[in-house]
Amino acid sequence: MASAAEQLAANVNLSAFGKSDELKKRIWFTLGALIVYRLGTYVPLPGIDPDAFAKSFFGQSKGMLELFNMFAGGAVQRRAIFALNIMPYISASIIIQLLTSVFPSLESIKKEGEQGRKVLNQYTRYLTVVLATFQAYAMAIGLEGQAGVVTDPGLFFRITTVVTLVGGTMFLMWLGEQITSRGIGNGSSLIIFAGIVAAFPSAIVSTLELGRQGAISTGLILGVIAMSFFVIAFIVFMERAQRRLLITYPKRQHGNRVYEGQTSFLPLKLNTAGVIPPIFASSLLLLPTTVANFYQSTGSDSIFATVSAYFGHGRPLYMLAYVGLIVFFAFFYTAIVFNPTETADNLKKHGGFIPGIRPGERTASFIDGVLMHITVLGALYLAIICLLPEGLIAYANLPFYFGGTSLLIVVSVTMDTVSQIHGHMQAQQYEGLIRKTKLKGRRK
Fewer CB atoms inside 10 A, N or C side of the chain? Predict the structure, then answer.
């Protein structure tokens, strides 16, 4: 089956794209919103000495702090107002979705349709403010603990830092929602995508510079490049992989018309959860260790330093927790986005059935079993993609942007965005055909 990108290249020409005014507006809006986001990553926090912070940042041990900087598009390194990025919102979304599965009252709200979704979104926003406030205050305390970084430490600096960082996170949350509704693609994913892609050139330059200085060998650089291309090709292959269930519709009669029996397929993606599990896993791992890294800079022997030591990037406990969270969220998010019982009921209403399987509960159980098996493969694929390059990064001290998580986000978001563009183009072509048909009918 051809991918969305191949269909877009084969079936859509430039003239059709030029006629799609709505699509052009959506693309320009998305690009404009991402430019605003990138500009915000260069606006510094008030009361920070840039030179002192730069020395402090590069003097710290990397790990989760550098990973956080990658997701923030370099905003942490530049002590910018978007340093928290959209990660508190993602963490809040995870918590609300988990609570929805635990508390019946929240589950009943979810079943109320569009109105229930709005209520849950509002709860997510409130929780985002709480998490962002906690992280921003911890960041302010950590900055004060670094010698010479804060020009005028005290209560006023903490308040301004918290207000600025929380405001930046809420603005990015709003911007992501605007991209989703008025632009192309998923807004939250595109914001993370833009931050990662923007840092690719500097990551490549820094890697080549390490090779020039002799810190890493030329063979290792070539190996990393080859591995990156292999990982990208593997991601594209696995993201397109699906299990197609044969659906049969028997011959039926409506009034005087008799419809012949038909067959179709129910496609089940191997990775139904998409890029969500790695992002969720990284977000949850960043939440405790962000505070730990900043408290560790004060030199105090506390529980935060212990957490940072055990959950450092590349450490066995970090890897184990990372894999566990990826597997958990792969199953959890798949259960949220795909309901086998609802799918079986819809097939039964329209007279469709899977050959050899009784409609109703048996069909739901069969679909659930198939989905469980392919989700095991999908979770294994995500764990391999995210862990294989991480070992090389920890071993060779290469930039995080060559890791499996960053490549998975970039490739998956690109494929999803191209698919949405293809959908808008097809809708535009269908509308044009309908208008032509109506005009021909009027002339007759």
Answer: C
Mean pLDDT value of segment 400-426: 78
- β-strand 257-259 against 262-269: which pairing, if any? unpaired
Return the pLDDT at 380: 92
Distance CA 245, CA 341 (A): 15
8 falls in which pLDDT band (50, 70, 90)?
Answer: very low
Q: Give the 3-state secondary structure of the chain.
A: CCCHHHHHHHHCCHHHHHHCHHHHHHHHHHHHHHHHHHHHCCCECCCECHHHHHHHHHHCCCCHHHHHHHHCCCCCCCCECCCCCCHHHHHHHHHHHHHHHHCHHHHHHHCCCHHHHHHHHHHHHHHHHHHHHHHHHHHHHHHHCCCCCECCCCHHHHHHHHHHHHHHHHHHHHHHHHHHHHCCCCHHHHHHHHHHHHCHHHHHHHHHHHHHHCCCCHHHHHHHHHHHHHHHHHHHHHHHCEEEEEEEECCEEECCEEECCEEEEEEEECCCCCCHHHHHHHHHHHHHHHHHHHHHCCCCCCHHHHHHHHCCCCCHHHHHHHHHHHHHHHHHHHHHHCCHHHHHHHHHHCCCECCCCCCCHHHHHHHHHHHHHHHHHHHHHHHHHHHHHHHHHHHHCCCHHHCHHHHHHHHHHHHHHHHHHHHHHHHHHHHHHHHHHHHHHHHC
Q: What is the mean pLDDT of residues 327-336?
A: 87
The answer for residues whose C-beta is within 8 angstroms of residue 58's C-beta and 6 or more apart is: none
**Domains of the chain and CATH, by start:** 19-434 (1.10.3370.10)
d(CA 11, CA 22): 19
Instruction: Answer whether residue 19 shows pLDDT above 80.
Output: no
pTM value?
0.77
Note whether 224 and 398 are within 8 A (CB).
yes
